[in-house]
Amino acid sequence: MKNTIKKHSPFWVKHLPLISGVVFTIAGIVNLFEEANPIGKFLFMMFLFGGSVNLLIYFYYPKDVIISWDEEKLEMKGQQLKPKSFLFKDIVDFRFEKEKLILKSDAHRGTILDIKGFGDGDLQLLKSRLAVN
């Protein structure tokens, strides 16, 4: 059975790449019709490029940060380039701080996960699972 908790982020934070992508694309198109000189064409291309990059980010990457776990591993994926995965058997120690979860694998390895925005009940569920290990 897989448990999952989601980060609760405001609407505008979750959809910021969509908003900025649309604004940049509209600004690029308006700039194309307003300017006839080479600098205007360059600005059109830059605004259009920025808008398309933001739209690609919005539609390609997940919008929510999700921590999920099953019997053998803990995964964190979302608004980042690569999902992070940790085997429970490798986690030696863990510590919850104000807005961070510190996972320690051995004497020389560990990682810090940002848990700001997750609900207290969800974090208690995660803490109980980590304590079983």
Could you walk me through the main structural features you see in this protein, from its secondary elements to its overall organization?
- By secondary structure, this protein is of the alpha+beta class.
- It folds into 2 domains: 1-58; 68-129, no CATH class.
- It contains 4 helices and 7 strands, in the order E-H-H-H-E-E-E-E-E-E-H.
- A 4-stranded antiparallel beta sheet has the order 1-2-3-4, with helices on one face. The chain has a 3-stranded antiparallel beta sheet with strand order 5-6-7, with no helix packed on it.
- Helix 2 packs antiparallel against helix 3.
- 11% of the residues are buried.
- The mean pLDDT is 80.
Briefly say what this structure is.
The chain is built from 4 helices and 7 strands; from the N terminus they run βαααββββββα. The protein is α+β, with helices and mostly antiparallel strands and about 130 residues long.
In quaternary terms, these chains amount to: single chain
Summarize the biggest pleated sheet: 4 strands, antiparallel
Estimated structural class? alpha+beta
Rg, alpha carbons:
21 Å
Distance between the termini: 16 Å
How many strand elements?
7
Total of helices: 4
Catalogue the unreliable spans: none
Order of helical and strand elements: EHHHEEEEEEH
Sequence of strands across the biggest β-sheet: 1-2-3-4
Percent of residues in helices: 40-55%
Approximate shape: elongated
Strand content: 15-25%
Q: Mean pLDDT, nearest integer? A: 80
Number of domains: 2
